[in-house]
Sequence to fold (430 residues):
Amino acid sequence: MSVQVLDALPAAGARAAATCRLCGARLEHTFVDLGMSPLCESFLPPGRLDAMEPYFPLRVLVCGSCFLVQLGEYVSPENIFREYAYFSSYSTSWVAHAKAYCEMIVARLGLGPDSLVVELASNDGYLLQHFLPLGVPVLGIEPAANVAKVAIDSGIATRVEFFGVALAEALLDEGRQADLIIGNNVLAQVPDLNDFVAGMARLLAPAGVITLEFPHLERLMADNQFDTIYHEHFSYFSLIAIEHLAACHGLKLIDVEELSTHGGSLRVYLAHAGAPRPMSASVSALLARERRQGFGDIATYARFAQQVTRTKRRLLSFLIAAKDAGKVICGYGAPGKGNTLLNYCGIGTDFLEFTVDRNPYKHGRFTPGMHIPIHPVGAIDEFKPDYVLILPWNLKDEIIQQMGHVGAWGGKFIVPIPEMTVIDPKEPRS
Ligand SMILES: [Zn+2]
Fold:
C-alpha cells in the first residue's frame, strides 16, 4: 500500500479517544502505549493466516478530571461480542467462585421465588445456573449468540441483546424489575458506560442491589498487569472512579470486597441513593487507601509505562537466552491477555512452538497477530518442552498443579507477570 493510500484512509479511532467516556472532559494524559495490536479474541482458522489482519492502537489514556483509565472505542462492540470465544465454564476455579457467590448473595439479600436476578453478560450461564436449585428466578442478558445458546439449551432464560437504557425500559414494560443485578467482568467492556449504568439504575427495584465485579486498577498497576489491557476492555476502574460513576446515576456505594479473581478484583455493591441501605466501613477505608496511594493525582498514573517496558525487556532477554541454548518452549493457554503480551513483546513461533488450551473452540486455530498454533493440552506431553510459558498467569496455581508432571522430563514453568519468574515443579513452593 502506498503512502498516499494510507493517508487517504479514515482516521477512525483517532477522535474516539478525545473525551472521557464517563465525565466528558478532554483526555490529555497517556497511561501506557502498547503499540498496534489485533483484536485479542480473533483466533484465526488456518485458511485466514495469509489474509490481511486489522490492527488497532492499544494506547490507554487517563482522565485528569475523574481519573477513569480508558481506551478509545477503536472497534465496535458489535464486531467483538457477537461471537465470543470465551466460555466461562472452561475454568474450574471460576465456576467454584460463581457458586460461592450465589449462595452468599441469596442469603444476604433474602432472595426467594418472588425475586428476580438479572445478570448482564451472562455468558454460558455458568453463574445463573447456581440460582436455580435455590429456587430464585433468573434472567440472563448476553449479546454473543453462540454462548447464549449454551445457556438457553440448559434451561436458563437468556435474552440475546446488548444492555442499556433501551433494554431496561423494555423489561420494565414487561413488568420486570430486578431485585439483584449482577455484572461480573462486563463493566470494563461497555463502550457507552453511562447508558449501561443508567439502564441498571432504571431496572433496579427500589430496594434492590447491584453487584459488579471488575479488575481493580490498583492491582493492575501494583502487579504490572499490562496484559489485561486489550481492545475489548474499554475502561479500568479504581473505586474513586466507581464512586463518581455511581453518583452520576443516582446510585451509591454500600459495600466493597477485594477478591483474588482475575489478578485482584473488586466486588462493589450499589443501591439507589435514597434506599435505606447504609454504607459499610470498607467503602470509606478503600477510598482513603486509594487517595493515599495517589489515585486522585495524575502524576501517579504516569509512572506505569516505564514499569511495562522494563518487564518486556526482561522477558525477551530470558526467552532469547533460552532459545540460544537450544531449549524448546511452548505456551499454556490462549487467553485474551496472552495475545496482548505476545503482540506487545513480539513473541511468535520463533520463541513458542505452540500453545495449548482447554477450550476446544480454539483447537486448530492460531493466535491473532503472532499466529501461534493452538493445540489440545495433551500436546505438552507429546512434545515435552523445556519451558511452558503460562499465559493466564492468574490461574497459575491451578495450572502448575494440573501440569506438575512436566517436571518428570525436567520441564519448568515461566510466569511472565508481575515479573518474569521460572518455577520448577519439583521444587517445593511457599
Ligand atoms: Zn473523566
